[in-house]
Structures
1.
Amino acid sequence: MENEIDYSGYTLSELKEARSTIDEQAWPDRARMLDQLIAARESASMSSPEPAAQPLRTVPVKFHGTTGEFFSIWIVNLALTIATLGIYSAWAKVRTNRYFYGNTDIDGHRFAYLAEPLQILKGRAIAVVLFGGYFLASYFNPLAGVIVAICLGLLTPVLVILSYRFKMRMTSYRNVRFNFKGRFGRAFVVFVLWPLASLFTLYLILPLALKKIDQFLLESSGYGEKSFKTRLNTGEYFGTGIAAGAIAFGIFLIGGIFMAVGIFSTSSGEEFSSSGSLVFTFGTFAMYFLAYVIASGFYSARIRNHLFAVTELDGIARFSSEVGVGELISLRGTNILAIIFTLGFAFPWTKVRTANFYAERTQVAVLSDVHQVMEGYTSDVGAAGEEAAGLFDVDIALG
């Protein structure tokens, strides 16, 4: 006798998927029942259409990697990269990404990183040529170097789009690739004109510029044929940005006062004593460290939570993030100190620790159209944009 399964909670798409997996000869009654349910559901949808994107379940993001496993990968990558004068770094990047992608789990399925080392290596070769041209121009003629730097700055939108297109196309989930369809014209406005406008307004509209960047990156991204949709709030960016700026200013103001008092109390006459120099060096480092960790931690936590709360993968998933400001500040601060005091050997621990931290504070609401996603048009993209963008420090990433 067949085991009975309750299909009453299944959506039409899930019923069809279940029917396609049934062996009619082995389970004739179950196949007949599914045919009847599908027919009834399709008939009912003619007069009362089924909601397009109803939440089915909410699942946590899980990260299964461990420090020990990644340390063995990292130390081999480091040794071979040094031994090959950097050539192996392309293979190192692929191994690292495949480890972290393959250990990130949503709803029982893991991500995959599809890039090959030679793609990365070719991209880095082009990036080295670009950097070499800039270096040579600057060395032989400073004015030419400035001109080349301006040209590279104007190429930033191209580098960002090529970088994101490559990253997204090399990422898959449930055998469906992500994609990026950002246009160069809009990218020029977002990555060149808005930052320039921010500069000429003494950074008064910097939060708006940052919002435009996040909005562009999200709305240009997709999964198969589905696109991300977002409703970013300008007030959230201004409020968070102003508060982060105030925090940094307060740290420098209070730190400057304490440093001045310390220098004055340890110095004699008009010259710095050795103790005064030590106070100045340590105080400067401490102020920059605290300003970066606290202000950036506050901004990143608030904006990440907001981004996730107002973003949806059309009909596929909604997201939520519960990153605490204090938690993120503590994470970043201890990570930096651990790397400094272990001369870099704590890097694998901080990397795995950070992945676990974000995974544990992220949830995904799976929607009813999840089984209808179709992989969009597949086109070859190169790694040149990603590597060149990373080399010139314009490789943009979402928290």
Note: The first strand starts at residue 55 and ends at 63.
2.
Amino acid sequence: MKKLLSICLVVLAFAVKAQTWNTEEQYIQRFAPYAVEEMELYKVPASITLAQGLIETAGGQSRLAQEGKNHFGIKCKETWTGKTMSHTDDAPNECFRVYESPKDSYRDHSLFLTTRKHYSPLFLLDVKDYKAWAYGLKRSGYATNPSYAPALIRKIEQYRLYEFDNISSDKVYATLLNRYPDLKNDAVFMAQVSQNKKNKDIPVQTVVYQEPKKKAEETRLVTPQAILDNILVKNHPNGDLKFIVIPEKIDLSYISQKYGVSVSRLMKYNELDGTQLQKNQIVFLESKNSSGNQKTYNAKTGETMYDISQKFAIKLAKLYKKNRMSFGEQLVAGQLVYLDSKKPRN
């Protein structure tokens, strides 16, 4: 009986090990194209991005990845305006970002690294030097685990992720098929391959969204170019600042390309933590002011300090300071918000 139990435990151990291996391989198969695309756009090594994703999500199985599409453990921070979820990490019930899709998480990871000063030394490194990047991330404070850099390097070498640092986005699917021939029988993967080929023939990405119509099943296609064609640059009355109003959901990168302002600058001007813009969102093309062009404003139901800072072209930190409020503190309907001078002390 004891011998039979020992055999069962050994078999179970091998099964668990195989399952973990398969999960990580499947993660690479699905997300390597995202990592290579981000490398091309933002110069973060694909091997590093994939290794971070594998570790942070336990091969895509973590609660943050499953429920929040958060693949890199990025916490809310003060200026995050998207959805959030509570999760225990370094401390109980910490606030983490929630994304619409894993691809949004990959893009936010690139922006997180490229728009924060303490990560800037990383971009002086060779994009193919994954070891230097691994130790550079640890020195920059990305993770609290003292073994984070060696763990990244082990993953990269275990799965030869460094190979993805040497290919372009138009070769990544062929590379995956060479590495994993059985993928040709995977309908989801082959659909991605087909879509990738179509995208190469289309100058801009096609976004599909549901419009309210008489027939709920009806949809229409809207390209980013069509959205951009319907955007007019306006001058804000507070300082004649140039701004636009986004008519439909679109990525900030398209705004950057059209108006010749870098993504990082647009994010700084508008105090953004992500690049997915929402319908009717105000986006400034230059830096906002420190004061408003009127003295006060009564907050409407549901309005946030960020909404008001965009409405009146005032820097968010300045607005909080004028109203003697802590950063992140919420408004109540009807609250008097000071725009020009500092709120008097009670």
Note: Residues 1-21, 201-220 have pLDDT under 50 and may be disordered.
